[in-house]
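Thread: "does anyone have the structure for this chain?"

Original post by V.I.:
We have the sequence but no experimental structure in hand. Need at least a predicted one for the grant figures.
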Amino acid sequence: MLTGTCHCGAVRIEVPAQPESITLCNCSICRRQGGLWAYYAVEAVKVIGYPEHTDEYIWGDRTLRCVRCKHCGCVTHWEPIDPEQHRTTHVNFRNFDPEELDGVRLRRFDGAGTWRYID
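Reply from O.Q.:
Generated one for you, tokens below.
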């Protein structure tokens, strides 16, 4: 079990294991958030402090909600609005200790253009 927190500690995220890879996306929102995204099944992610310490942002095709701590502003994760349509939660590994990513493959995703991995 790995645990990450927002800056102030009001929101904690627990995932079952180190991800196989993380994604750096250059789409309009990911590049502004600066996230490093790991993908887990919705039921595998536990978020403590949610929803009482979080705010959400929904945009685009309105299938995902971006969740952040309402106290310190750190983006913690993306989650599906309809878990039947999207079965993964996107966890921002910038909220975990850097050594948790030792040996994990970094994938670059062109969300701004081709919608393909470019590594």
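V.I.: this helps a lot. The chain has one domain: 2-112.
O.Q.: and The mean pLDDT is 96.
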